[in-house]
Amino acid sequence: MPKSPLELLKIDHLLSSDERDIAATVRDFVDRRVRPNVADWYERGDIDLELVKEAGSLGLLGMHLTGYGCAGTNAVSYGLACLELEAGDSGVRSLVSVQGSLTMFAIWKFGSEEQKQRWLPAMAAGEALGCFGLTEPDFGSNPAGMRTHAVRDGDDWVLNGTKMWITNGSAADVAVVWAQTDKDQPGKGIRGFLVPTDTPGFSAPKVKHKLSLRASITSELILDNVRLPADAVLPEVRGLRGPLSCLNEARFGIVFGSLGAARDCLDTTLAYARTREVFDRSLASYQLTQAKLADMTLELQKGFLLALHLGRLKDDHQLDPEQISLGKLNNVREAIKIARTCRTILGANGITGEYPIMRHANNLESVLTYEGTSEVHQLVIGQALTGENAFT
Ligand code: FAD
C-alpha cells in the first residue's frame, strides 16, 4: 500500500491527540472552504473575506494567545494550523497569521488593558480584521530607516508617511502602524499606533498586478495628517524590539506553514504520477521520478522535524530568534524547491490553475521575501555563529 510523504516517518506519533485533532479540524475547513474556491480567488486576485468570521468561529485567530476570547493553544498546534491553512493557499495562511501573530500579538503583548478589551475579543471572533504596517517603499529589510513619523500636537498624535506591501490593508478595521517619534534617533523612538482605518487621512489602495500571493489583499497605507488621541499608542514598547518580536511570532508560523504548501504539491504529484502514463508505463514507475519523490519526501520530513523541534522549544519558552531564522530559511527554501520539482513531474499540466502546484510555487516567492528574506535570515544565523554583524 503506497504511503503518503508524512506517514512514511509516522510523524503523527510525535503529536498529542489534541494537536492531531486541531490539525484535522483545520484540514477539514481547508477542504470545504478553500480548495473548491482558491483557484478562482487566485485568478481574480481576491479572497473571500467571509473566511475571517469562519476562521474566528473555529478559534484560529490569535489561537496561541490567552484570554480576550483567544483559544490559548500551544505553539505546536498553532504551527500545525498554519501548515494545514497553507496546504490550501499561502494567502489564506497569511490572512490568519497577520491577524493573529502580527496585529493581535502586538496588541496582546504591548497594548493597554483598554486597547486589549476594545480590539482582541472582536478580532478573535473574526468580527474585526487587522493589518500590520512596518515596511515602507524604501525600507523593507532595514525598517529602522522608516520615514513614517508621529509628532505630538497637544495631547494628540499626528501621523504622516507611507507603508507598503501591507497584507489585509484595504480590508482592515484597524492598522498597527509603526512610526518614528524621535527623528534624531532613528530606530530608537519607534512606537506602535493603533489606527482605526476610518480615521480621516488614512487610506489603503490595493497593490495591483501581483503574480504571487494573489488570493490575499496587499495594500499601501497612506497616512496623511492622521490625528489620533493620546491613548492610540501601544504603551508597553519602544524601539524596533516591538515590531521584531511580532515578526518572530509570524516567522514561526511560516516555519510550519511553508511545509503545508510543499505537502500539497507532493500529494498532488504522487497522485498524478501514479495515473499519468508515459512510454506505456506509469510515470511513478520510473526511477528518475522516484528519485525526485524520495528526495522531496526526505526534505519535507526533515523540515517537519525541524519545525516540531522549534515548536517544542517555543512551548518551553526556549526559542531564540536565530533558531526561528534557521527554520524559516530552510523550510521556505526547501518548500519552493519541492514546488518547482513537482511542477516538472506534471509537465505542461503543472503550469495550469487546474493543479495547485504553480500557484504554491508562485506564492512561495512572496513567503521567501516577507518576514525576513532568506539573505536576512542567513545574516542573523551568521551573526549568531561569528559574533560579527554583516548587515551594514
Ligand atoms: P529589500 O529590503 O529592498 O531587499 C532587496 C534584496 O536585498 C533582498 O534580496 C534582500 O535579501 C537583500 N538584502 C537586504 N539587506 C541586505 C544585506 N544587509 N545584505 C545583503 N543583502 C541584503 N510588510 C509589512 O510590514 N506588513 C505586511 O503585512 C507585509 N506583507 C507582505 C506581503 C507580500 C505579498 C509581500 C511581497 C511583502 C509583504 N511585506 C509586508 C513586506 C516584506 O516584509 C518586505 O518585502 C521584506 O521585508 C523585504 O523588503 P523589500 O521588499 O523592501 O526588499
TrEMBL record:
Residues 131-226 form the Acyl-CoA oxidase/dehydrogenase middle domain. Residues 238-385 form the Acyl-CoA dehydrogenase/oxidase C-terminal domain. Gene3D superfamilies: Acyl-CoA dehydrogenase/oxidase, N-terminal domain, Butyryl-CoA Dehydrogenase, subunit A, domain 2, Butyryl-CoA Dehydrogenase, subunit A, domain 3. Its cofactor is FAD. InterPro entries: Acyl-CoA_Oxase/DH_mid-dom, Acyl-CoA_Oxase/DH_mid-dom_sf, AcylCo_DH-like_C, AcylCo_DH/oxidase_C, AcylCoA_DH/ox_N, AcylCoA_DH/ox_N_sf, AcylCoA_DH/oxidase_NM_dom_sf, Glutaryl-CoA_DH_mitochondrial. One of its GO terms (molecular function) is fatty-acyl-CoA binding. Keywords: FAD, Flavoprotein, Oxidoreductase, Transit peptide. Residues 17-127 form the Acyl-CoA dehydrogenase/oxidase N-terminal domain. Transmembrane segments: none annotated. One of its GO terms (biological process) is fatty acid beta-oxidation using acyl-CoA dehydrogenase. Belongs to the acyl-CoA dehydrogenase family. This is Acyl-CoA dehydrogenase. The lineage of its organism: Bacteria, Bacillati, Actinomycetota, Actinomycetes, Propionibacteriales.
